[in-house]
């Protein structure tokens, strides 16, 4: 699937039937190997059988690809030289990470003299998706014994093609344990207390104690559901359909906790890989409406909204509320949004969204709010903030703003920090003008353009017929054509063909420049028709 975007490196372990001596372990469905409930087989193996199984597997395995394992993916970071070697690897690993294995004998193997056996015992514990086992796993975080390397014998074809292999990846048992614990801790975003003086440098385990002190005794929390979703989705975006059942099982677990906590955790997980299956756009809007404008405003201001101790959301996740303020907040909250926008200046990305949210709530004074905010965004890195404000102003529907917008649209591009010209301002304005606001934050978002209103088509015609349009960039013209095509019974021109004129070889090619000139002329000539 060439469209896959990796959010992390992971592997899905297929559950297989496994035998130790004359005992056969129950086989579980491959699609939910790491997510199925932990159940004991009818005849649970004894400690000696479990130890034999782990010792044989440790002798058989040549490597342990850690990051893919963390994300529950049956796909390696590299291509092995021997055909079918990856399947043998996953089969061997699945035999010792099957969740039907009894817990006590596996935990006892953390004290085994063989570092490989200890590593596989860690993998078996982690694969149970039980955060209550973290205090057991962390005890091996300072284990410096060398264990399986990070990769096996590489593809000879790959080596012949490149002439090089990746740097040797040595691993210790402690490396494995730390990565497993960090997989949980990193999602909690706890800031550990400061430690001063070399004599007080904390160990990894002592830092874990700070984390565990807050979360121990809980049956659920936000970051633990974050781990569940990451492993269910395999950290891949766009979400692959074969992982939807696992993601829906995570949703079923979420639906079983108190409703208010469920709502906040769904908002916390919005934008993560798999969140588009976890909650649809309509469901997410319903969740935020159920939370209500008062609590949403408390969250926007950084005030506590839940007893969940690790419900720490990045500022960018607030954008889904701000971009849909008219659906979720009250007109009386506009002034508070402006106040917060002023406080966020220079502290977060794209603070202009606070002012556009306020303008969407205060219909009477919306234009004045946007114009008053404009002078705040005149720095060399404010191009995107200006686009946000300009789009909001255009959508207010007042022709008196067209001269201002035209002057801004055609103004010389400011130079950014490295001396090159700021790209794409015109194209970004047109694209955002005709794209509905996102209801979720799942990335990469596929922008679905809807038919453009007559008023906005007339604004585009105003820009097209401006003499300065002759110097407009290629991609701005492409976006305008795309907008017009979306609004016409019959396309004005072949947008794909025009796109390829610049996409293959660059927009400065003579052929691309000729296509650009012809398209500008066509847009002007036909503007009386498509702008109606």
What does this structure look like?
- The protein is mostly helical and 532 residues long.
- Helix content is 51%, strand content 2%.
- It contains 27 helices and four strands.
- The chain has helices spanning 47-60, 66-70, 85-97, 103-108, 115-126, 134-137, 156-162, 173-188, 204-215, 222-233, 244-255, 259-269, 275-278, 281-291, 293-300, 319-322, 325-328, 334-344, 352-361, 366-373, 383-395, 402-410, 425-433, 454-464, 474-486, 495-503, 510-530, and strands at 5-6, 18-20, 23-25, 236-237.
- It has a two-stranded antiparallel ribbon. It has a two-stranded antiparallel sheet with strand order 2-3.
- Helix 19 packs parallel to helix 21 (383-395).
- The chain is globular, with a radius of gyration of 28 Å.
- Mean pLDDT is 84; it is low at 1-42 and 443-447.
Reconstruct the topology from this structure.
Blueprint: E1 5-6, E2 18-20, E3 23-25, H1 47-60, H2 66-70, H3 85-97, H4 103-108, H5 115-126, H6 134-137, H7 156-162, H8 173-188, H9 204-215, H10 222-233, E4 236-237, H11 244-255, H12 259-269, H13 275-278, H14 281-291, H15 293-300, H16 319-322, H17 325-328, H18 334-344, H19 352-361, H20 366-373, H21 383-395, H22 402-410, H23 425-433, H24 454-464, H25 474-486, H26 495-503, H27 510-530
Antiparallel strand pairs: 1-4, 2-3
Helix pairs in contact: 1-3, 1-5, 5-8, 8-10, 10-11, 10-12, 12-14, 18-19, 19-20, 19-21, 20-21, 21-23, 23-25, 24-27, 25-26, 25-27
Question: Characteristics of this structure?
Answer:
mainly alpha; 532 residues; 4 strands; two-stranded antiparallel sheet
């Amino acid at each position: 699937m060439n469209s896959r975007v990796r959010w992390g490196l992971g592997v899905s372990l297929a559950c297989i039937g496994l035998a130790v001596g004359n005992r056969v372990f129950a086989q579980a469905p491959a699609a939910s190997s790491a997510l199925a409930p932990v159940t004991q087989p009818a005849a649970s193996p004894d400690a000696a059988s479990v130890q034999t199984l782990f010792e044989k597997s440790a002798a058989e395995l040549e490597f342990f690809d850690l990051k893919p394992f963390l994300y529950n993916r049956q796909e390696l970071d590299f291509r092995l030289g021997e055909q079918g070697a990856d399947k043998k690897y996953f089969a061997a690993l699945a035999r010792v990470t099957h969740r039907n294995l009894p817990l006590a004998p596996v935990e006892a193997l953390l004290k085994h003299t063989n570092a490989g056996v200890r590593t596989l015992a860690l993998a078996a514990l982690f694969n149970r998706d039980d955060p209550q086992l973290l205090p057991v796993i962390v005890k091996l975080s300072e284990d410096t014994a060398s264990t399986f390397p990070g990769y096996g014998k590489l593809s000879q074809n790959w080596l012949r093609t490149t002439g090089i292999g990746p740097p040797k990846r040595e691993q210790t048992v402690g490396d494995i344990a730390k990565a497993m614990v960090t997989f949980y801790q990193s999602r909690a975003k706890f800031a550990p207390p400061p430690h001063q003086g070399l004599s007080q440098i904390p160990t990894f385990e002592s830092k874990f104690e700070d984390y565990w002190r807050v979360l121990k005794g809980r049956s659920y929390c936000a970051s633990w559901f974050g781990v569940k979703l990451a492993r269910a989705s395999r950290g891949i975006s766009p979400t692959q359909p074969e992982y939807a059942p696992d993601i829906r099982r995570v949703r079923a677990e979420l639906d079983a906790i108190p409703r208010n906590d469920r709502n906040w955790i769904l908002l916390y997980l919005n934008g993560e890989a798999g969140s588009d299956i976890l909650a649809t756009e309509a469901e997410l809007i319903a969740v935020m409406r159920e939370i209500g404008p008062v609590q949403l405003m408390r969250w926007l201001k950084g005030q506590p909204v839940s007893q969940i101790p690790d419900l720490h959301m990045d500022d960018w996740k607030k954008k889904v509320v701000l971009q849909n303020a008219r659906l979720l907040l009250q007109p009386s909250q506009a002034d508070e949004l402006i106040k917060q926008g002023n406080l966020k200046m220079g502290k977060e990305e794209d603070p202009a969204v606070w002012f556009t949210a306020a303008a969407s709530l205060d219909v009477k004074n919306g234009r004045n709010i946007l114009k008053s905010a404009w002078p705040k965004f005149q720095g060399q890195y404010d191009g995107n903030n200006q686009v946000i404000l300009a789009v909001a102003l255009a959508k207010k529907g007042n022709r008196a703003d067209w001269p201002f917008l035209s002057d801004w649209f055609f103004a010389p591009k400011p130079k950014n920090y490295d001396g090159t010209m700021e790209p794409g301002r015109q194209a970004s304005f047109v694209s955002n003008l005709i794209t509905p606001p996102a209801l979720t934050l799942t990335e990469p978002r596929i922008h679905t353009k809807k038919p453009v209103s007559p008023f906005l088509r007339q604004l585009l015609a105003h820009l097209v017929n401006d003499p300065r349009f002759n110097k407009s960039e290629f991609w701005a013209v492409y976006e305008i054509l795309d907008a017009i095509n979306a609004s016409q019974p019959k396309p004005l021109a072949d947008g794909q063909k025009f796109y390829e004129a610049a996409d293959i070889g660059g927009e400065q090619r003579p052929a691309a420049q000729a296509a650009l000139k012809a398209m500008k002329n066509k847009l002007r000539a036909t503007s009386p028709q498509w702008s109606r």
